[in-house]
Amino acid sequence: PAGLNASTFPAKLWRLVNSPRVRSVRWDSQAQGLLIDRSLFEQELLSPGSANVTGGEGAGPVPDSFQATRFSSFVRQLNLYGFHKVPGCVGSAVPGLARGWLHFRNPNFRRDRPDLLLRIKRRTAANRQRLAAGRQGR
After folding, report:
1. What is the pTM of this model?
2. Could you give the 3-state DSSP secondary structure of residue 73?
3. Cβ–Cβ contacts within 10 Å for residue 17, how many?
4. How would you label 22-55 residue by residue, b for 16+ Cβ within 10 Å and e otherwise?
5. For the HSF-type DNA-binding domain, which residue ranges apply (predicted)?
6. Which residues pair with 37 in a beta bridge?
7. Mean pLDDT across the stretch 46-51?
8. Does the structural domain 9-52+62-133 have CATH classification 3.20.20.70?
9. How confident is the model at residue 131 (pLDDT cuts 50, 70, 90)?
């Protein structure tokens, strides 16, 4: 959407989840959350030289790989941008998925509403203080 900085974490994540070249990240069945295969994600996007995914049609450089080299750093970014892990094993609840997929949600990250990406802001100490001040003033 207009006004969204293409280099932000939410914009990169949006492009990855919608890229046919990325197999480790996909939408959940309601298109309102992310399903992430940790081991495949580490191979595709976090490993040294991960800018090239091999195999299959459309193989080639993965767009917008993250600078993180550890999965825990990626999850920290998700948390800083307001994503929350959905409890439970999604593999058993989602047809065609094996166990081991992690499920994350953010109310402003939906496949059918790219305009909501503008609402996703990184949580910082200053942002938390502004939110707290706004709640106390009500």
Report:
1. 0.74
2. helix
3. 19
4. bbbbbbbeeeebbbbbeebbbebbbeeebeebee
5. 5-123
6. 101
7. 61
8. no
9. low
Give every CB contact of residue 39 below 8 A, 6+ residues apart in sequence: 100
> What count of other Cβ atoms lies within 10 Å of the Cβ of residue 132?
10
> What six digits make up the tokens of 92?
């058993």
**What pLDDT score was predicted for residue 69?**
80
Taking the domains of the chain in order of start, what are their residue ranges? 9-52+62-133
Q: Which residue has the tokens 């989840």?
A: 17
Strand partners, 26: 35
What pairing do the DSSP bridges indicate for beta strands 52-53 and 101-105?
A: unpaired
pLDDT at 133 over 90: no
Strands of the 101-105 sheet, one edge to the other: 25-27, 33-37, 101-105, 84-85
